[in-house]
Amino acid sequence: MRHFLTTEDWTKQEIEALLEDARALKAAPQSGRLRGKRCALLFFNPSLRTRTSFQVGIADLGGTSVVLDAAGTWPLEVEPGAIMDGEAEEHVAEAARVLSTYVDLIAIRAFPKFEDWSREREDPILAGFVKHATVPIINMETIVHPCQELAMLMALQARHGDLAGKNLTLTWTYHPKPLNTAVANSALLAATKMGMNVTLLCPSAEYMLDEKFMEAGRGLAAAEGASVRVSHDIEDAYRGADAVYAKSWGRLDQIGLPMEERLTSDDLRRFIVDEDKMALTNIATFSHCLPMRRNVKATDAVVDGPNSLIIDEAENRLHVQKAVLSALIGS
Ligand SMILES: CC(=O)N[C@@H](CCCN)C(=O)O
Ligand SMILES: NC(=O)OP(=O)(O)O
């Protein structure tokens, strides 16, 4: 039995095969590959794209899905051995095993709570389901977002062809709230796996991603003869980029502090993706996972410009997830 938890568990050839199948599914959306199959989609956080594209995609393949919003199910405990005298009414040991008797696959979205990174970086909710469920698990975004990775790669390949040797600048952007690092971790993993040279642009060393993802990215890049570098210099990081990917994230060293102590300096609004910065690039494409605050993360001119891939990438979520579902439980 195979899961889709992180692309780190899938070889480059397997990722290429998923992308190839996604293109086939885009051309011929309907099939009976999931006939008789039932999927549970469990959301601990909001979603527009993931929720819709999974439900529609499962229907396209002849399967059925049930969406469970965590707010509408029982508060869940995931710690092994917990004395459950707090908020949680149910342990993942039961939740995962019971769901496994009803459905053929469980997909989970569970962002870190940004309370204790040393624990959250182990992805405890997803790990709890993997441990106790007896059906395949798909990660719909936890500390990585592998479905977004595939959608990003599909959009980049459609525009750039072979991605090997192309330069991707992954830029941090301002956002009023400290956001999850999952999509940034994932953009790094996906791009390096395909042999792109990644420049990670962020304001200072405090904004670095978790070293385990940096190390993984460096390893993947090295295997493809590509590179990962970090820059805190906006002009330097944009120069020569073929693709710009934007994401905001909160400082890992501030996780657990009260929100009023985690405010981002207004000065960092200058990291917005705008036409002046894009003019430094090699006529780069622009993308972002969405949802996106316009004129905070990127200007309207960039978002609505001819090199913006945001809608293509979002559409691709449907196609790539159908390929993943087919690979895990399809006939
Ligand atoms: C506003 C917010 O929390 N955005 C999330 C959503 C990512 C895509 N699902 C983030 O930027 O991490
Ligand atoms: N990009 C993405 O995962 O979108 P949603 O959060 O709307 O699902």
Automatic annotation (TrEMBL):
Source superkingdom: Bacteria
Domain Aspartate/ornithine carbamoyltransferase carbamoyl-P binding span(s) in chain numbering: 2-157
Gene3D superfamilies assigned to the protein according to its UniProt record, in alphabetical order: Aspartate/ornithine carbamoyltransferase (3.40.50.1370)
EC numbers for this chain: 2.1.3.9
BP-aspect Gene Ontology terms: citrulline biosynthetic process; L-arginine biosynthetic process via ornithine
SUPFAM superfamilies for the chain: Aspartate/ornithine carbamoyltransferase
InterPro entries named in the record: Asp/Orn_carbamoyltranf_P-bd, Asp/Orn_carbamoylTrfase, Asp/Orn_carbamoylTrfase_sf, Asp_carbamoyltransf_Asp/Orn-bd
Keywords: Transferase
One MF annotation (Gene Ontology) recorded for this entry: ornithine carbamoyltransferase activity
Domain annotation Aspartate/ornithine carbamoyltransferase Asp/Orn-binding: ranges: 181-327
Pfam family membership, one: OTCace
UniProt keyword annotation of Transferase present: yes
Alphabetized PANTHER family for the sequence: ORNITHINE CARBAMOYLTRANSFERASE, MITOCHONDRIAL, ORNITHINE TRANSCARBAMYLASE, MITOCHONDRIAL
Function: Reversibly catalyzes the transfer of the carbamoyl group from carbamoyl phosphate (CP) to the N(epsilon) atom of ornithine (ORN) to produce L-citrulline.
Family per record: Belongs to the aspartate/ornithine carbamoyltransferase superfamily.
Protein name per UniProt: N-acetylornithine carbamoyltransferase
